[in-house]
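Question thread 4412

I'm putting together a teaching handout and wanted feedback from people who do this every day. The idea is simple: show students a protein as raw sequence, then show them the structure tokens that encode its fold, then repeat with a second protein so they can compare. Below is the first pair exactly as I plan to print it.
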Amino acid sequence: MGIGNQLREWAERNVGAAESDDAVVVKTTRYLRLSMIVLVIGLAAAILTEYSKSHLKGGGSGHCWQPSISAYYYTPVQLVFVGALVAIGITLIVLKGSTELEDVFLNFAGILAPVVAFVPTPNVGECGSVLTDTANRGVNISNNVTALLIMAGVALAVLALLKWLDQPATSPPGLKAPKDEALAHRIAMVGYVAVGALYIAALALFLLNRPLFNAKAHWGAAITMFAFIILAVINNAINFYFTRKQVEAERAANSTADGSKAAKPLNRYAVIAALMVATPFAVVPWAGDYKAIWLEAILITLFTAFWVIQTQELWNHGLRTPEGVLATLQEPQGAPRNDIPGPDHAP
């Protein structure tokens, strides 16, 4: 039998999806989370490679650091910096949070990430293997931010159209109590309105006061992006706590054990949230001219740790569920299982 006939028979046998809908969704969210981790690693690798070849602008020997990660835009790291931020931003928007609040926080952080990339910091810095100047900064911002605003405007319009057509749903009917379902829809709507207000404010500033936009948009977007990331981590810590509390209460009610209590695993999201909140207070007083890069490096490291932990927790479920939290309480820490619950496969 020729290779052509073999391929034809294979195509005839493999009609439709290879896996269940649930498995496809879980694997998609799994790899989106993994991609976020890989993107941060890639950015770190580009910066460390540049550090190995760096020197001060005025010459001299020895390696040096830029005053901020954002300042690496003006070094050979530029393409990785912009590409990573845009990809991370899209991933943050695409990923559905386990709660409506987390989803709103991730959406805001994701929307701001491309602004950080497309509006480079005005501070070029003095360190690099090669340093570009700011001669074309204004032209680049004008072109890239115009495209970004058009894309964002189209996205907001499409979401409004889908809402008008009654297409989107926060959760499938019957998954939540009517009261909780209504609250979820209200949170989603408030988030949409807030994003719309941010879009209008950015558009107005971009059109009416370009010098102010070019001077302030980068750090305004960067600080706000990190704030929403921290809020997402805090929300995860709270949601994990109450989900685990519910699971433990149900397990205790159904248990016939002797009443002894197992030790609770540490709420790692709470630890990361506390470290993120404490970072500015710990770094700013002593870091001097390098406080920005220290802040960014520590927060990005904690952000990566958060995604590693969340990827591990949600490996088999995609979103946080009582069954998923129960699995984390019952199973030893280590490599996650590969089984994925499908429509006829209870977790």
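The second pair follows. I'd like the answer to focus on this one:
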Amino acid sequence: MFEKAEKKEQNALWENIKVFVQALLLAVIIRTVLFQPFTIPSGSMMPTLLVGDYIFVNKFAYGYSRYSLPFSPDLFSGRIFSSEPKRGDVVVFRYPPNPQVDYIKRLVGLPGDHIQVKDDILYINGQPVPRQPDGTFTSDYRNDPGVDVPVYRETLDDGKTYDTLDARPDSAGDNTREFIVPAGHYFMMGDNRDNSLDSRFDVGYVPAENLVGRASFIFFSIGNDTSFLEFWKWPANMRWDRLFKGVQ
């Protein structure tokens, strides 16, 4: 009788282990192939993405490179099942000077494009990107870009539209040289134009291999510098209007 009870316990333990392993494998597959969660740690993509936003990134949008895999093993070069990103996409990519670091920016330049910023205006292939005033922005983040920062809505030639911030008219990135995007590379800029280290600076051109995926939607958002672990502060600091909001 005791032997039967012991055998039952062993079988139950083994079943639990199998369920755990299966769940772990499923989680790894989803994270590797489908969607990966990311948190927004800085204000470079304000007002589109805020510090404290937690997003899912669509990893199959552009196909897969070694950076799609955990620990980025050097198993192959380039991309497989690849598809071209679109101008205006919000993209997670590996920082070219240090591929261990993830960045998130907006893709504004495709291979062969001529990109320049003149007097705060983004030019693509010699044409200014139209922008219109769209109110002001104040962040609940301690290191916010300021109070009542001017917001401008840019509209690309394919109709893609999004908001940008222009806190200062004379920042380092407001007047640049002309950049010609090489084949197999992309040009990225943050929507918080005066507070973004992007392709205008040390990020440079981003190789196609470094793309991780396209930002899809916000699944959690908490403000006022609240840590995810401070769950007792969630009710007072949750940004309810941002939950399950698509990233445009």
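Top answer:
Good format. For the second protein you could add a caption like this: The chain has a mean pLDDT of 87. The chain has one domain: 37-246.
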